[in-house]
Design brief:
alpha+beta, Ava_C0101 and related proteins, five-stranded antiparallel beta sheet, globular, 312 residues, six-stranded antiparallel beta sheet
């Protein structure tokens, strides 16, 4: 299978907009039906062998233990409970409105009373429109969605490999439904007191100093898929630090900068996986040195911290 197949944003923009809202519906169920974790780690999806999953949830919200999986090979939304009951429906052919109603009705049939406190998109252009009223977004190209999942899975494995070299506090490799990206974050120990006006999402996500690494499929700001990294707080001089390869760039983003590596350029390299790993490492070194992290103390090459491993 081709590593990093082409996935230009303009070719699946309508499908992506619909799928993004499908993920937000299920993601909001996950958020309200799972125990809260620091830095919102209870919220994202994780990858499976044929799609993405909420992971088990329930009990804390009064429901039986249950999970929801997007099967992006057969294009089904699959729901299961710990009692062994399951139900599914085909994803293609749904608008956001009908997907929302079908998801809740199917869960009800399994004895799961799902709750979505704010049943509308988060941080999207139609954030004021309830899911139940959105009949506009209904495009779903199964081939494009399957390719999205394959790219997501390939990038996920690169992030897992990169994560292995760090023994400090690190997030899982996970897929955020609000921003439609896949990411992994390394944490320092410095407490950050974010201002109240930053909002609860930012205050919890960045309550410690971090260097984060990930990939997105493109949006209005960067209309093409790209690998990225950033540091919070952004230290002085960060954008003067070199990135690898030399054609990677520091790009303005909100109140700071992102290290960016364009996906289509990576695809043309003889060793695209190696290029991405070098990019993440260069961004990490740039941030860690300026944030005064002791990178040597938390290094664990190839995932090994056993001091006797090399000798035998």
């Amino acid at each position: 299978m081709e590593l990093f197949p082409p996935i230009p944003l303009q070719e699946w923009q309508d499908t992506k907009q619909t799928l993004h809202r499908f993920l937000q519906i299920v993601g909001k169920i996950r958020m309200s039906a799972s125990p809260r974790r620091n830095h919102w780690w209870h919220v994202p999806f994780h990858l499976t062998g044929n799609g993405i999953t909420t992971r088990p949830m329930g009990i804390v919200d009064g429901n039986p233990l249950f999970a929801i999986d997007f099967d992006l090979v057969s294009h089904l939304l699959v729901m299961r409970t710990i009692e062994g009951r399951s139900a599914s429906f085909a994803i293609p052919g749904h608008s956001v409105s009908s997907f929302y109603r079908e998801t809740l009705a199917t869960l009800e049939g399994l004895g799961v009373h799902a709750r979505i406190p704010h049943p509308r998109p988060f941080d999207l252009s139609d954030a004021d429109r309830p899911f139940a009223e959105d009949t506009e977004h209904a495009a779903y190209d199964p081939a494009a969605v399957n390719r999205y999942w394959r790219v997501l899975s390939q990038v996920g494995m690169v992030l897992e490999e990169f994560a292995a070299d760090f023994s400090g506090k690190t997030s899982p490799v996970h897929h955020f439904w609000h921003t439609f990206d896949i990411a992994m974050t390394r944490f320092g120990s410095r407490r950050l007191d974010q201002p109240r006006q930053a909002g609860p999402l930012i205050r919890e996500a960045y309550s410690r100093d971090v260097i984060s690494f990930g990939f997105w499929f493109g949006d209005a700001t960067v209309p093409e898929p790209a690998f990225y990294a950033y540091a919070i707080p952004e230290p002085d001089g960060l954008t003067e630090r070199p990135l690898a390869p030399a054609w990677a760039e520091w790009a303005p983003s909100g109140h700071g900068h992102l290290a960016l590596l364009r996906y289509d350029r990576v695809r043309k390299e003889p060793d695209p996986r190696g290029v991405v790993l070098s990019f993440y490492e260069s961004a990490y070194r740039a941030g860690a040195e300026l944030l005064d992290w002791d990178a040597g103390a938390v290094a664990c090459p190839n995932g090994v911290t056993d001091p006797l491993r090399e000798g035998g």
